[in-house]
Structure formats: structure tokens, C-alpha cells
Amino acid sequence: MSSKVLRKVEEARPKALIEEIILENFMSYEYARIPLKAGLNLVCGPNGAGKSSILLALSVALGQAHTERSRRLSDLVRRGEETARITILFDNRPVKGRRPIPSSTSDTFRLTRYLRRDGTYWFEADYRHVAKADVVRLLSSFGVNPDNMLIIMHQGMVEQFTLIPPEQRLQLVEEAVGLHPYRQRVLEAQTRLEGLLSEEKSVGKLLREAEENLAYWKTQHERYQRKLQLAEQRRRLEVELAWAHVSKLEAQLERMVEEAERLKRRLDKTFAKLEEARVFKRKTFEDFEKVKAALKSQSFELLRVEVERAEGEGWLKLAGKLEVLPESLKAQAEEFREKVKALASKALKVREALTNLEAELDGVRDRLVEAGASEKLLEYQFKELESELKRLYREMEKVREDLEIARVEAEKAGPRVYTDRSPQEVAEELKTVNIHLSTLSDVSGRVEKLYEKFRSLYEELKGKIVVLEENKRKLLEEIDVRREVWVRRLEEVLSKVNQSYQRLLSTIGARGEVRLVNPQSFEKAGLELTVGFHGAPPVKLDAYTQSGGERSTTIMAFLLALQEHVASPIRAVDEFDVHMDPKNREAVARLIVETVRENPETQYIVITPWHHPIFDEEARVIVVQKVGGKSEVAVVEGEARSG
Question: What are phi and psi for residue 629, nearest 5 degrees?
Fold first, then answer.
């Protein structure tokens, strides 16, 4: 039968009770059929007959883990056999149109477990193989858990219940009465909380690591940003430097143009002076020639006058040698005298004129020499200025070429930048920037992505932490609510159990209390029983204060008080009356009968070595005997007992 066949059934369906247990080659049983009914089933017989084996077989067939842990399954196979089989037949007849196990269409649901000597085992449901997990799910759907000693209490577990911690007792009670889901809901929420806390811790650790990484990459990012700023500054400075060179050359060219204009003006002025000097020189030369000509003319005039005078004086001297001059010569001589006298006067004037002309000629000559010297000086100055201007023009051309090259390079560097700084000043700052940039040479462009990656991760983790904290807050509130519900339901059930427990104890002359301890702590909450016999004040039940019989009696009173709340339709207890004196044994037997009568649709299996007549009216008595090494079962019905 598949797991679909053994799916969980609704809580409102009829109870699934056992019709029969069939044992084959199980322990001391070769083959036995143990029929059971609703109500009380009493299994009795001498010690060692195989009574407890029936309960063990039931537990094994139901998949009890406790048995599997404490004893090898292969040890349960009858000696000399290879395979043992335990079959449980459940009454699956419809009640008000519904079957207890709705996934099966048979009136009898058959659950079988096979055990082999080699240690292997398997389950069958209605003759089909099923997994143990499917069996567990089926049984838990109607409250049967063979591992819970409050449902199936094996031999020695009555005493064991005294020894287990209060926390474990409480959990057994919760599971038996169906409150386990409340605990499970709290545990589930706590598990989710643990997962959440673990996740929060992991995310917190990741957040701290991300924060450390982010701090490192933030520093690197700041260095990268600084590098970008410096690179941008360097780029601007390079542009500024390029245009500073252009500006410098432009200023230099402008100064040279101004200088050329100044030189040109000086050259023009010098050329004008030179022209003036040349004109002055020509005029002076003309004056010199004029004076020189006049001097020559006067010299000739003086020579002529002197010749004429000499001729006159010679004639007069010749005439003077004559003793008697003719009258004709006297007049001529007088004329010559007057002429010589006039010529002497004229010669004197000519000499004066010559003297003046010579002085004037010397002056003109000096001016002419001075004019020549001035001309030469001006010509020299003109040539120098002209040479300097030509040199300046050549330099200007070179500067223009350099300016054109610098402008092209500057335009490549970037748009025109006007700066009042010199290239040297810009170059100094650029040098400083390059030095700073060299210290950031290890910072690459990957820093930007890595910083963004870790920043995004950090923000994501921060957001996740916020969400986790909010979820944790909600989950803590949910846990508080679930704990509150769990405690309230637990207190409600335990309050009723306590009332029944006190009533049952009172019937055997004892008093006590069932109480919840440490309810404020989910982990430490537990169940304590107190009891006092023969008028003694109630004290906590433990392994040291009460006698064995008193402990057994107390635990049975508690179990019976619990019965109306237990979810499982099947309950079993082995040797409930161990250590009890006859009085308490009879009293507990009466309490069992009373409890069975109050729960007629529940199936009880009670194992005891003694046959109590008190059970005869209510119980199906199953007698176990061992004959020839084999356990055999006989059912004694009520009429047979009374006969």
C-alpha cells in the first residue's frame, strides 16, 4: 500500500481499534492469535509465560523506536526460524458512513511487520509494502504513538516514569493528550527563531565583514576619487600650461611687434635725420664750393690788381727816371698814380675779402667735415637699426612659427584657457600634482566597481538585518502568543487531570496534586506529582521518598486521571500492580474498571501476573501459558469465568 493509501485522516473519523494480534515465530510464540475488544482486555498468566511479549509485539508492529534501539530486531525472531511476523487487524467497519481508516476499503485493515534473522525488516499494509514513515504517519493521525509510555507502558516503565525529569514527563503528557501540536508550534516558531538568529548572526558576520571591506574599499575609493581629481587637475593644468605657452608666445610676439614698431619709428626718424644731414652736407658743400670759387675769383682779382698795380708802379717808376716828362705823359702819369692808388686800395679790399673768404672757407670746411661725420654716424645708426629690425623680424617669424605650433598643441589639449600665470608657475603646480599622482599609482579603475559592489552588499545586508530584526520581533511576539496558548491549554487540561487525580487518590485514602512547574520557561516547564498517604502531607513523588507500592499506586492514579484526555484509542500497561500491596492492588483495579466504564469506546490492554476478580465483569481475559517452550494463548470469556 502506497503512502497515499496511508495519508493523514481527519480528526472527526471513528476510532481505529484492534480486533486481533497475530504472532508468528515471534519470541516464544510459534503461532498465536490474541483477539481484543473495545474496553478492557486483561492479559494474565505466570511470570515468564510470554505476557509482556504480546505488548512488545504490538509495539514492534506499530513501529516503536524504543524497542529497536534497546534490542536487536533479529533477537525477536523465534529460535530456529528465519522470519517472524506480527500482524495487527484493525476494525475498519464504517460508522455513520465513515471508516476509521478511510484510505482502506476493507472492513479489516491489516498491518504487518516482518522481522528477519539477518536484521532486515519491512512493513505491509493490506498486503502491500509500505515504508515505516507511512506507518508512523497513519498511527499518529489517530493519536497512537508506541514510543510514549503514557500510551503503551511496558514492564518497568511504571517505575521509570518516576525517574524521568519533570520536563520529559510534561512532554509525554502533551503528546498523549494531543497538546503536542501546541508545543510543536512553539518549537517550530523557536526553530524558525533559531534559524532566524543563525541567519541574523551569519548576516551580522557578513555585515561586519562587508563593513570592514567597505571601510577598506571606501579608503581606496577616496584615494581613487582623489586620483581622479588630481588627474582632472593635471588635465586642466596641462591645458592651462599649453595655453600659458601660447599666451607667453603671444605676449612675446606682441612685445616684439611693439619693439619692431619702435625700431621702425627710430629707423624712419634716423633716415629722416640722415636725409637732412645729406641735404645739409650738399648745401654746405655747395657753400664751400661757392666760397672756394669766390676765394679763387678774389685771388685772381687780387692778382690782376697787383699786376695792374705793379705795371702802374713800374711805369711810374720808369717815368720817374725821366727828368722831364712830357706834358702828355704827366697827365698819364698822374692818371697812373691815381690808378695805382686806386689799385692799392682795391688790392687791400681784395685782400680783406680774401681773408674773410678764407675764414669763411675754413668755417664751411669745418661744417662740411661735421656734416660728413654726422652723415656717416647717421648712416651707421640707420644700418644698425635696420639690422636690428631685420633680426627682430626674423625672431618674430620664429616666434610666429612657435606660436602656431603651440596653438595647435594647445587646441589638442583642450579649449582656450586664459591664465595670468606663467608657464613656469603652472609647470610647478603640475609637477606637484604629478608627484601626488605617483603616490596613487597602485589605485586602479577596478576600485570603483569593487567599492560599489561592497557598498551595495553592505546596504543590502543592512536592509536584510533590518528585515531580520523586524521578523525576529514579530517571531518573538508570535512565540509569546504561542507559549501563552500552549500554557493556557496545558493548564486547562492539567487542571482537569488534577481534579480527577485528587478524586482518585481520595478513594484510596491519599491526597496529592498534579502541577505545572516553571510554566514561564518553555524549556524548563515540567510536570510534578505530589502525594501523601495515610494522612501525611503531600510531597513530591520521587524514587526515594515513597515506597515502590506507593509510587506504583500514585502513577496509576495519575494515568487513570489522564485517560479522558488521551487521544489514542489504544492504551496499554504492563504490570501496573508491581510492588503494590493487596489493598492498593484491589483499589487500583477498581479505579481501572471505573475508568474503562467511563471510556467504553477506548481499548485498554492491561498485563498482570494476577487475575483480579474485579475485572471479570468488564474484561476480556487473555490467559498466557508456556507449554513445551511455546507460549500459548487462551481467551476466557465472562460466562466461562462465571461457570
Answer: 80, 5
> Residue 294's CB: how many other CB atoms inside 10 A?
17
**For residue range 501-538, what is the model confidence (pLDDT) as tens digits?**
999 999 988 999 999 999 888 889 999 999 999 889 99
Maximum C-alpha span of the chain: 250
Confirm if 135 and 125 have CB atoms less than 8 A apart: yes
Q: Are 59 and 149 in contact (CB under 8 A)?
A: no
Which H, E and C letters describe 68-102, residue by residue? HHHCCHHHHECCCCCEEEEEEEEECCCECCECCCC
The rounded distance, in Å, linking the Cα atoms of 624 and 635 is: 9
* The pLDDT of residue 9 is above 50: no
Which residues lie closer than 8 Å to 305 by C-beta, 6 or more apart?
A: 343, 346, 347, 350
- Beta strand 121-125 with 128-130 is antiparallel
Residues 6 or more apart in contact with residue 157 via CB below 8 angstroms: 149, 574
- Which DSSP string do the residues of 536-557 spell out, in sequence order? PPPEE--TTTS-HHHHHHHHHH
DSSP 10: P
Cα-Cα-Cα-Cα dihedral of 165, 171, 174, 175, to 10°? -130
Tell me how long the chain is.
643
Short-list 569, 562, 572, CA closest to 144: 569
What is the per-residue pLDDT across 270-285, written as a single tens digit (0 to 9) for each? 999 999 999 988 998 8
